[in-house]
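Re: duplicated header lines in exported structure tokens

Our pipeline writes sequence and tokens for each protein into one text file. With two proteins the header for the second block appears twice in some exports. Here is an export where it did not happen, for reference. First protein block:
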Amino acid sequence: MVKVHVSFGLHTFTRAIKADDPPGDDYSDNREKRCFDYERYRHSHRLPTIVREIPTSRKLYFSRTRSGLINYATFDTGEGKTYAVFFDVMLYKSRGPNTVLLTVESAYEFAETKRDTREGRIRFSADRSRSARHKAHPPAARTLEKQKPHC
């Protein structure tokens, strides 16, 4: 049996900063500064359920990126769009034998014009447990109820 811990990265609810973004939407960690993305944030609430479903009901793929190989799965948003969840899995030796850390690196709606990046299929089968690396919060200067998304 393999024990799986899960963490969620900053890219699951932020995107690259654009020149016309208000500074109040900046969101950063110790590595980078990005813009809080209200649409990604809205979809990110589904990520724990999506991760739980990965081993049993999802087709998983890998694709080459600038930094190496990345695993991902795609899902129907229920709104006629495709939501892609990009993740990495590595041994988590500090948590014990047969333990891995699944990090959801990024998640967003696929643009319809984006090329199909599936290069191969992978398999995933394990018992699951969760721990969060990042907890997303809207920027302090705005609230989701009062502000129309513009990111």
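Second protein block, exported in the same file:
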Amino acid sequence: MVKIDVTDEYIMEAPPLAVYKAFINEVSGATQWWMPDLAFKLKGNIPLEREGAVFDIIAHPNSRLNAKFSCKVKKVVEAKSVDLDIFAGDCIGSGNWIFEEIDGKTKVKIRFNVKTNNRLISLMAPFVDFAKFHSEAVQNGFKSCNSYLAKKSPDQR
């Protein structure tokens, strides 16, 4: 098992509650602004903004070389943070989403702290920079979310 620990940040042009809601809507399936980099599927009947919610993530879902993992929400503080247990799939570990207000905007931080849980991915790790691929997918999502929110009027956020 190979360790991957990466943190990505981005400044969104919207307040924390709007950004938080955009993330909740994306993972819940109401939007798809993170495609084609990431796809999400909520499992069960616990809403994402509640502790115990479970969802799947597929990185690069349209590629044969995708990665899949399942997450459980450990803790949620509305518009502030979401802590995740990444408990099954190609990687296992933890994830955190942080939403921090800065002058009416939001600094979003995502930390992905896992070990590979797939023999092929572990074998490829010395030759493939998985942290870089993760960061590219997350940064693309940040930019897409920012564009998505910019198109909404402030009262729709």
